[in-house]
Amino acid sequence: MPVEPAHTAIDYLTTIGTLAGGLGVVGSAVAGAYLALRYGRKGSAKVEPRLVHSRDGNVYIDCRLSFTAHGLFRIKLASPADCVVQIGEILDAPIDGGGAVPSPIGRKYEARGVFGEEPLTVDAGETQFSSVLVSVDQPDQPIAGWIVVLNVHSGTTRPVAWDDRVFLPYGESR
Fold it and tell me: Cβ atoms within 10 A of the Cβ of 130, count?
């Protein structure tokens, strides 16, 4: 009676193929989990400022705000005080002979809690809107306009921040 070899080349190739397939499945799962954690909490912040002159001579900047969660998971925003609109005057200062501007930022204004008083959770694919009206002083020196910044921070264990910055020229009012 002939004796068959214990393992043939096909047995070795089958074992190698099985191991490679198993490692491929595990590698795909690990890579998928990494990508979901890395890119699952994507969002964007947007500010659209508008200059408003009232009849009594006051000047306001009306800021339309939005925050959108683009990723796979919901985004819990940090405390309401961490959602801030900051406004700074941009002075219309001439550049001296050396090319330096003395200080381009004039007065600063700030509004906190612009998405409400309670902590906010934005679900995946959802956009949260808000609006804030900030009273600014009449310019007492020549200004080019204002820089309007929206800062939004997440309240997760890995803090993430989003912002949007828009220049609002002084002459643009509606």
Answer: 17
Contact yes or no for 121/73 (Cβ under 8 A):
no
Angle subtended at Cα 52 by Cα 85 and Cα 143, rounded to the nearest 5 degrees: 75
Strand 84-91 relative to strand 105-112, pairing: antiparallel
Structure tokens at 123: 């679900």
Identify the H or E element spanning 88: strand 84-91
pLDDT higher than 80, residue 33: no
- Contact predicate 110/85, CB 8 Å: yes
Q: 39 φ, ψ to 5°?
A: -115, 5
pTM score of the predicted model: 0.69
The first and second tokens of residue 24, run together, are 């491929």
Nearest Cα neighbor of 68 from 27, 122, 116, 138 is 122
Q: Is the pLDDT of residue 174 over 50?
A: no
